[in-house]
Amino acid sequence: MRDNISFLLNGRVEHVADVCPTTTLLQWLRRVKRLTGTKEGCAEGDCGACTVVVGRVKGEAIAFEAINACIAFLPMFDGTTVTTVEGVAQADGKLHPCQQSLVDNHASQCGFCTPGFTMSLYALYRNEATAPAVSAIEEALAGNLCRCTGYGPIVQAAQSMFGGRPQAADAERRQVEVDYLAAAKHGETLCITGEDRRMLVPRSEDELAALYLSRPDATIVAGATDVGLWVTKQDRLLNTSIYIGRVEELARVTRSQTDLGVVIRMGAGVTHSDAARALSGRPAALHELWRRFAGEQVRNIGTVGGNIANGSPIGDLSPALIALGAQVLLRRGDERRTVTLENFFIGYGKQDLRAGEFLTGIEIMLPADSADFSCHKVSKRMLDDISAVCGAFNIHIQESRVAQVRIGFGGMAAVPKRAFAVEAALLGQPWTRATVDAALVAFEDDFSPISDARASASYRMQVAKNLLVRTFVERTRTATPTQVTDCAASMSE
Amino acid sequence: MIKMQKQGPNRARISGGVAEALHHDSAVKHVTGGALYVDDIATPPGTLEVYIAMSARAHARVIRLNVDAVRAAPGVICVLTAADIPGGNDISPTPTEDDPLLADGLVQYVGQALFAVVAVTVQQARAAAKLARVDYEELPAIITVNQALAARSYLEAPYVMQRGDVEAAIAAAPRRLSGRMEIGGQEHFYLEGQAALAVPGEDDDMGIYCSSQHPSEIQHTVAHVLGVARHAVTVEVRRMGGGFGGKESQGNLPAAVAALAARIARRPVKCVYDRDDDFLLTGKRHDFRVDYNVGFDDHGMILGLDVMHAVRCGMSFDLSQPIADRAMLHADNCYYLPAARITSYRLKTHTQSNTAFRGFGGPQGMVAMERIIDEVAATLALDPLEVRRRNFYAHRDRPDEARAVTPFHMRVEDCIIDDIVAELSETAEYQRRRADIRAWNSSSAIIKRGIALTPVRFGISFTKTFLNQAGALIHIYSDGSIHLNHGGTEMGQGLNTKIAQVVAEAFQVDYARVKITATTTGKVPNTSATAASSGADLNGMAARNAAETIKGRLASFVAEREGVSANDVQFWPGCVAVGGRVFTFDEVIKDAHMARVSLSATGFYATPKVQWDREAARGRPFYYFAYGAAVSEVAIDTLTGENRILRTDILHDVGRSLNPAIDKGQIEGGFVQGAGWLTMEELVWDEKGRLLTHAPSTYKIPACSDRPGILNLALYDRGVNSEDTIYRSKAVGEPPLMLGISVFAALADAVASVADYQLLPQLDVPATPERILMAVMRIQTG
Ligand SMILES: Cc1cc2nc3c(=O)[nH]c(=O)nc-3n(C[C@H](O)[C@H](O)[C@H](O)COP(=O)(O)OP(=O)(O)OC[C@H]3O[C@@H](n4cnc5c(N)ncnc54)[C@H](O)[C@@H]3O)c2cc1C
Ligand code: FES
Ligand code: FES
Questions:
Q1: b/e sequence B474-498, b meaning 16+ C-beta within 10 Å
Q2: How many CB pairs under 8 A join A and B?
Q3: Distance in Å, CA B49 to ligand 2 centroid
Q4: In A, which residues are within 8 Å of B39 by CB distance?
Q5: Computed over its alpha carbons, how large is the radius of gyration of chain B?
C-alpha cells in the first residue's frame, strides 16, 4: 500500500505525505500551499467560492469538472489534476478568456465570489465548444453565489468568453494534464495516515468488500458532499474512512434490454453528473430533477449511492427511484443481496444495512412510456436548494384507467416514502379529475409531515396533494402551462 | 517646456477621468486570485487563531463558566473571558454601552459571545471550546415582535413624527382602510465573513487589519477594550468581500477579540468567523410589523395616514435608533401626505442585535407605503400606477408649496419622480402589458402573471448630522505619481475607482497615475463609516479639495515663476498651461519639489445645508434625494407558490454618473438583493430564540437563475443633482435595493388575479412560495 498521494496542481506535480486524511483540499491549498485565491465562503458546499477544476480518469474518458474544495478531502485527489484560480492565466500573465470576459463585463464588485465564478466559467469553457444557452449557463453557475452583482454581468461574461477560440496555451496545458492522468491511471491501494486518522483507498470492489468487512466501523466516503460537512461543521473525527471513488466497478452505468423493458444499472459511485449524462435525457423527468439537484460542483462529485445510503428524508433521488421501482444492490464480503428501495429505509437515520455492508448500485426499469413518469421538486429557491417536498409519479394509463401506479415522496416523512394509500385510491380507477380529487385525502393516511425552517407541515401536505393535481393536468391538458419556468415575459412590441 | 496646441501634448482628454466606464480597479486581481482579503494576508510566524464560544441560551444568568478543560486542550494558548479585559467590556457603536465584548454573567441571545479560545489553529480552538462547562439559570426570553409589543419591551420611549391633525383627516376622509404587514429581516450574507488580524507592536501599539466599513470605530473600540489611547491603535482596511451595512458595527467584535488575544498572548492573532457562526453572532436587517390606517378619497388621493412601526432591535441598541428613524423618514416614499403620523416602537428582544443593512430601515418604511397604495388602488379598482402618480410630491419644476412637505417638515425641492415614472412606463409598455397579462391570466388556470411599477425616493445623508464629514490625503511624489488615500472603504462598490477618477480629473492626469491605497486610520483620522450611500459624495469632495489645495500651490508656484497671476495657470490634460507656455505635469512637479513646494495635502468636506432636530422631528436631514423606478413582471404557480421574475425594467437617477458601469452594477445588484429580501430570504427562529436558518443550505439568497429573465436597465439620462455634489452625481449604494419592491407588488398582483382582482390578498415579507400559496388559498376560499 502506498502511504502518500500525488497529483498535478496547476501543472506541477505535488507529493503529499503525513497529512491528516480529512484535511480538506481547501485547507491544504490555503494553509499549506498559501494559494489564497480559492476562498472559503461557507465550508459547506453551498456558495462556490472554493471552486476548483479537477481532471479525473473516468473509464476510458477524462473529465475536467468544477468541484467544491471546501468539503472534499485531500486524498480524494490522488492521481487527479487540480487547477485553481492562480493556474488559469497564462504564465506570462495574459488572462484566460474566461477571466478577460469577467473583467470586460464588469462582473466583479467585491470580488470574493469571483475566483469561484472564474473556475466555474473555466470548466464551462473547457467543456463546451460554443456559448451554451442561458439556461445551461444558469445551471452551471447555480452552485456559485454572488451577493453583489445580481449575476447579469457574470452570465454575460459566460456568453461572450467563447469568442476568439482556440487558445494554444490551453491545448498545451490540456496535453500535460492528459499525459499525467494517463500515467496515474493504474495505481495501488492507498493508506493515508495522519493525526491518528486513517483513510483507505481501495482500487477494486473486491478489495473494498474485504477492507470494509474487516473494518466495519469505518466510514465510507464517496463524494463527501455529506461526509465533508460532518468534518467541517460538526467536527466529527472519522478515525477510519474508506474512499470508494477509485473503485471503477462502482462507477459504471449499464443498460440492458430485458423481456419487461430496459433495465438500467447504476453503480453506487456514479456521480450525479455522470448518471445524468449516461441516461442522456431519458426519462426526461429524472433529467429535470437532476437539473435542480444541488449545484454543478456537488453534482460533479456527489454520488447516486451516497444520496441513497445517507437515508436522508429530503434526498431527491430516492422518491424518484421509489416511483421507478428501484432495487438496491448490496454487498457484504462476498455476500450480495437486493432490497426494494422503499424497504431499504427503515426509519429516520436507519437503513437496512448490516455491519460491513455497502451499496454497489441500484437497478431501475425505465418506464415503457417516458410520459408515465414525472417528478416535482418544490423548494424556496429554484436551483441549488434542498426540497421542501419532492414527489415522483409513475402512472400508467390503459383504456382511460389507472393500470399501474407507484408514487414516491421526499420531505413528507422521516424517510423517503412510497404513497401506498394514494396509489390504492388511484389504481384501477378512471383517470379523471374526480378520481384525483378523491385520492387527495389518502395523502393524510400516507403522510404526517413536520414543520421546519424550510416549510410548515400544512404547506408540505397541501403541496404534495397539489403535485398530484399538477401531474394530472400536465398529462390531460398538455397545452396548459403548469410551471413558472414555462412562462415567458411579455415582450415589447 | 513643450510647445503645443491648446489641446495638450497627445490627446484631447485624459484617460480615466470622471464619467468614464472604467472597470473596478481590482478587477484583474479578482479574476486571478490576487486580491487579498484579511484571511489571505501572509501572517507573521507564530500567529494564533481565535474561536468565539457562544451562548446557548436566549436569556439567562451564567451561574458558572468553567474553562479549565478548555485551557488544557491540545493547541490552546489561552482562554479569554470578561475578566481578562483590561479596558472597557463594551463594543457598542453608539454611546449606549449595551454590547459587551464577552458576556459577563448575563447572556441575552443564542449566539452571544461568551468566551474566546486562542489556539494554534482555529480547529483546535473550536474543538477545545466544546469542553467548557457552562451552567445557566434561564430567564424569560422575548423573541418575537408581538411578544415584545405585548410585554412593552422597549429599548427607548416610542418616537413620533407628525404633521397635521391625522385623526381628523382620516375621520373626515370619504374612504378609509386599515391593515397590517409583517416584514422579515435579512441576513447580509457578504461572501467574505467577518475577519480581523491583530498584530501587537511596541508599547501599547496594536495594528488591526480587518474587513470593516468603519475603521475609525474599530480603532475606538479596540482602544477602549484595551484601555489605551486611540493613537496606539492603527486600523487598515484594503477591501471587504462585501459589506452591505453588515460590517458597519459588526466588525467590532472580531477585531476587539483578536486585539485582546494579541495583547494577552503577545502574538499576532487572527479571528475569522465560520459562516454558521457569522449567522449566529451578527445582527441582521430589522424585522418590522407595520400597522396602518389610511384615509383617502374616491380618486385615491391620500388624505391622512397613521402608521405604527414595531421594530425588532434585538438585545441592544447597536444602530437601531437611526435605523428605526430612517424607516419613519421613508414611510412616505414618494407620496405627499397631507396629514401623517408615524409612531415607532423600538423593541428589545433576546435575539441578535439587528444592525445596518443597505437602506438602513428605509426599505421597510417604503415597502409598507407601497403596500398601502396598492390596497387603496384595489379598493377603488384603480390601476395602482395611477394612484401612485396622483399622490407624488410636487415636481421640481412645478413647485406646489402645498404638496412638497414631508411628515418631518422638510421641503422636497428636487422631485423628479414624475418624469422617471412617465418615461419608464412608456419604455416598459406598462399599460399594454398590464392589459395583456390580465387577459392571459383569465385563460391560464395554474400559472398567473402579475406586474407592478414602484417608485423610489431615498434621502441622502447621515441623519446624525455630524457624521456628514470626510477627509482625504494626497501625496504627489517627485516623479509625478500620485498616492491617494481617503476615509472611505472599498467593499465592492467601486468607491476607490470613482475617487481615483475624481482625482485624475482634478489634476487632469491619467487615472493610471493615481494609486489607491488601503484605508487606514493613520492617514485619515476620525472618519465616518462608509455607509448611508455617502462614500463617493463625501470622500470624492474631500479628495477633490485635497487636489485643489495642491493645484493651488502649483499654480502659485508656476505663476510666480512665469510672472503671471495664478488665475492664468490652467491644468490641461497631462500638462500645465501658463500664458503661451505649456509644461508637462511631471516637469511642474519636479520643479515644484526643487522649489520646496509642499506636494502633500489633506482635504476635508462637510455636507452643507443639513440640519435635523430630532426632538422636534423637524428639519432637513437629507441634502438631496435619489430617485428611481422599476417595473417587474412575475409568474406564480398557484399549486406550489413557486415564482419567477420574468422581466424587470429599471430607470434610475444617479445624477451625472461618475462611472456608469459601476453605477449600473450597483443598481442591478441592489435590485436583486432587494428582490431576494422580499421573496426567498427567510430567517426562522424557534421559540427558544435559536436561529434555525444559519447556513446557506437553509437561508437562500438569490442564485443566478433568480435574476429577472429579462432586465432592461437604464440610467436616467437627464439626471443631474440639483445640489452641488461631486460633479453633480448622486449616491447609488442603497436606493436601488428598493427597486425590488416592484417584484413584491407584482407577486401580490398575480395572486389577486386568482379572485379576479376583487381584493388584494394579505401578503407578508418575504413572499416565499409557502406564503404565496397560502395567500392564493385564502382568496380562493374568499
Ligand atoms: C450544497 C449541497 C447541495 C445539495 N443538494 C442536494 C439536493 O438538491 N438534493 C439531494 O438529494 N441532496 C443534496 N445534497 C446532499 C448530497 O450532495 C447528496 O445526498 C449526495 O448524493 C451524497 O453523495 P456523496 O457521494 O457525496 O455521499 P458521501 O457524503 O460520500 O456519503 C453520504 C453517506 O452515504 C454513505 N455512503 C456513500 N456511499 C456509500 C456506499 N456505496 N455504500 C454505503 N454507504 C455509502 C456514507 O458513508 C455517508 O454516510 C446537497 C449537498 C450539498 C453540500
Ligand atoms: S466555501 Fe462555500 S462552497 Fe466551498
Ligand atoms: S462580487 Fe461580491 S459576492 Fe460577487
A1: bbbeeebebebbbbbbbbbbbbbbb
A2: 283
A3: 21
A4: 30, 36, 40
A5: 27
State whether B696 and A145 contact (CB < 8 Å): yes
Q: Which domains does chain A carry?
A: 4-87+173-248 (3.10.20.30), 97-166 (1.10.150.120), 252-476 (3.30.390.50)
Q: Among the atoms of ligand 1, which is closest to the Cα of residue A71?
A: 53
Beta strands across the sheet bearing B288-296:
B159-163, B340-348, B302-314, B288-296, B175-183
Pocket test of ligand 3: the residue of A119, A149, A155 to mutate, having most ligand atoms within 8 Å of its CB, is A149
Our answer to whether residue B734 is catalytic in this structure is: yes
Measuring CA to CA, how many Å separate A442 from each of A260, A345, A378, A438, B781?
30, 21, 20, 8, 22
Distance from CA of A480 to the nearest CA of B (A): 7
This prediction has a pTM of 0.97
| B602/B523 Cα distance (integer angstroms) | 9
CB B412 within 8 A of CB B402: no
Q: What is the pLDDT of residues A300-348, one digit of tens each?
A: 999 999 999 999 999 999 999 999 999 999 999 999 999 999 999 999 9
pLDDT at B6 over 60: no
pLDDT of the residue at A141: 98
Closest CA to B100 of B83, B88, B110: B88
Contact A110 B436 (CB under 8 A): no
Q: ipTM of the assembly? A: 0.97
What is the CB neighbour count within 10 angstroms for residue A272?
A: 25
**Nearest to A338, CA basis, from A323, A357, A356, A355:** A357
Q: How confident is the model at residue A166 (pLDDT cuts 50, 70, 90)?
A: low
* Interval between CA A70 and ligand 2 midpoint (Å): 5
Q: Which of B123, B446, B770 comes nearest A455 by C-beta?
A: B770
For residues B380-407, give the mean pLDDT.
94
Cα B240 to middle of ligand 3, angstroms: 10
Residues enclosing ligand 2, CB less than 6 A? Answer: A 40-43, 45-50, 68, 70
Query: Mind listing the domains of chain B with CATH numbers?
Result: 27-35+469-606 (3.30.365.10)
Tens digits of per-residue pLDDT, A376-393?
999 999 999 999 999 999
Rounded to whole angstroms, the Cα distance separating A129 from B298 reads 61
What is the 3-class SS of B362-426, one letter each residue?
Answer: HHHHHHHHHHHHHHHHHHHCCCHHHHHHHHECCCCCCCCHHHCECCCCCECCCCCHHHHHHHHHH
Strand ranges of the sheet holding A12-17, from the earlier edge strand across to the other edge? A12-17, A4-9, A81-83, A51-58, A61-68
The pLDDT assigned to A478 comes to: 81
A49: which chain B residues are within 8 Å (Cβ-Cβ)? 191
Distance CA A351, CA A333 (A): 18
List CB contacts (< 8 A) between A486 and chain B. Answer: 447
* pLDDT digits 0-9 by tens, B674-715: 999 999 999 999 999 999 999 999 999 999 999 999 999 999
Give the residue on A whose Cα is nearest the Cα of B634. Answer: A489
For residue B494, the chain A residue with the least C-alpha distance is A109
Q: State the residue for C-alpha cell 467560492.
A: A49
Cell of A303: 454520488
Q: How far is CA B636 from the centre of its chain?
A: 30
The alpha carbons of chain A give a radius of gyration, in whole angstroms, of: 23
Q: Is the pLDDT of residue A273 over 70?
A: yes
CB of B34 within 8 Å of a chain A CB? The answer is: yes
The burial of A258, by beta-carbon neighbours within 10 Å (0-12 exposed, 13-18 middle, 19 or more buried), is given as exposed
Task: Tell me the chain B residues in contact with residue A66 when contact means C-beta distances shorter than 8 Å.
Answer: none
Residue B769, pLDDT score: 98
A360 lines ligand 1 (CB under 6 A): no
Backbone region of residue B575 per phi and psi (left: phi > 0; alpha: psi in -120 to 50; beta: other values) = beta
pLDDT tens figures, B76-85: 999 999 999 9
- What cell was used for B153? 419591551
